[in-house]
Amino acid sequence: MTESKQETKERILSKGAELVHSRGFNNTGLKDILQASGVPKGSFYFYFENKEAFGLELIDHHMRFFSEHVTPILNREDIPPTQRILGFFAWFKRFFTEHGFAMGCPIGNLCQEMSDLSPAFRDRLSRAMEAIIRPVSKLLSQAREQGELDPGHDPEELACFLVASWQGAMLLMKVEKSARPLEIFEAQARQL
Question: What is the model's pTM?
Answer without folding.
Answer: 0.90
